[in-house]
Amino acid sequence: MSSLLVTGGAGFIGSNFVRYWCRKHPGDRILVYDALTYAGYLPSLADVLGLPTVTFVQGDIRNEAEIYRLMRLHEIDTLVHLAAESHVDRSIEGPQAFVDTNVSGTHSLLMAARRAWLVDRRVPRHRFHHVSTDEVYGSLGPADPPFTERTAFAPNSPYAASKAAADLLVRAYSRTYGLETTISNCSNNYGPFQYPEKLIPLFILNCLRGIPLPVYGDGLNIRDWLHVEDHCRALDLVLAHGRPGETYNVGGETQVSNLELIAQVCELVDRCFGEDPDLRDRFPDCPAAHGRPVASLQTFVPDRPGHDRRYAIDMSKIRQELGFRLSIDLASGLAATVQWYLGNQEWCDGVLARSDSNSVVSA
Ligand SMILES: NC(=O)c1ccc[n+]([C@@H]2O[C@H](COP(=O)([O-])OP(=O)(O)OC[C@H]3O[C@@H](n4cnc5c(N)ncnc54)[C@H](O)[C@@H]3O)[C@@H](O)[C@H]2O)c1
Asked: 20 to 30 A from 182, CA-CA: which of 59, 109, 235, 324?
């Protein structure tokens, strides 16, 4: 039995991870620690918060003393670090918050973990896992090979630079102090409970509300989409069998341009309206409610500065070392995601009601 501390557990990947872990490892205890910024939404955990094994504490990862106190109190042996400022566009507008949370916050966690695990030595084994991004590797040209774990860091946005800095701190704590760490660098995730500033939920909700679908530049930027459930399975494998001090890349092996992805989302929304007449009453502002394709909402907007052209992940290491296999392809994962947003209007209204922005897009 393990006792996990999950930072950022009220966010998109964090809430899916907590739900996944409760299902797969029902005997483990989970302490969710989250500051509940605009991106953290407690109702995303509604179905697991009542479990006796799950505890929630609201707090900032920069509070090292509080993290250390909680690690001792709950005898934490596994720290899964997902808390972050995660939106690239926001990092361009205000990079300081990204340095504060992603760099200083990660360092506070490392200091607390070192004290609890290497100085106090109250648990027999430990693991510090940092959930990072493929954006640390920068941008690929059309013919470049995919990122491996040995690709040099070349971050292009303040967000990516802050995640790269955090990765390097985690590495340094492993090499210098012997903290047992692992890092995963994953591609763009999608699935349920994603805050609607990110491309897929933003576009689904804009379709339903009849709001333009803003496409950066020529829309030909390529991303490798990973369903969040597959990501959680990869994290489980890395935690169980990943070698301390190592990094593992996780991707979806599905490279599509933003334009192709948007076309798929639009087609799915149109199809749902065709199959379910009730949607016309529920979403009267959607063009599909009046027989018009939602793709008519697509609008090109000026590109964002430093916009990476292409990401692609080489997953040989996690596949060969840990036997990881993807289980959800983009077509079925996207269809389920569109259905989830159509069926969870209350969650969407709730998360947006407390947001300060819902009109930007990131991929
Ligand atoms: N979503 C993706 O496609 C993707 C891809 C690669 C890597 N990642 C990484 O995965 C992790 C989770 O991403 P996400 O999409 O779920 O992000 P998210 O923005 O949905 O959630 C982040 C969570 O962290 C919390 N948080 C922010 N600052 C905090 C602080 N100072 N103290 C405590 N909690 C704080 C927020 O309240 C929120 O619940 C991040 O580290 C991100 O960099 C995400």
From this structure: 59
Q: Give the integer Cα–Cα distance in Å for 149 and 259.
A: 28
Residues in the chain: 363
**One of 159, 190, 195, 311 is an active-site residue; which one?**
159
**Residue 354 pLDDT grade (very low, low, confident, very high; cuts 50, 70, 90):** confident
pTM: 0.96
Give me the pLDDT at residue 184, please: 98
DSSP 8-class letter at 99:
I
Lining residues, ligand 1, CB within 6 Å:
7-8, 10-14, 34-37, 39-40, 60-62, 82-86, 101, 105, 131, 133, 163, 186, 188-189, 195
Q: What is the pLDDT of residue 355?
A: 64
Q: Which domains can be identified in the chain, with CATH numbers?
A: 3-194+226-253+308-327 (3.40.50.720)
Which residue lies with its CA nearest to atom 28 of ligand 1? 84
Nearest CA to ligand 1 atom 9: 132
Name every residue whose Cβ is closer than 8 Å to that of residue 164 and which is 6 or more positions away in sequence: 136, 153, 155
CA distances for 320 relative to 49, 222, 227, 314, 353, angstroms:
36, 26, 20, 11, 45
Note if 159 is an active site residue.
yes
How far apart, in whole angstroms, are the C-alpha atoms of residue 358 and residue 230?
A: 27
* Given the residues 85, 134, 253, 308, the one annotated as active site: 134
Counting atoms of ligand 1 from 1, which one is nearest the CA of 40? 39
Pairing of strands 127-133, 181-186: parallel
**Percent of the chain's residues with pLDDT above 70:** 98
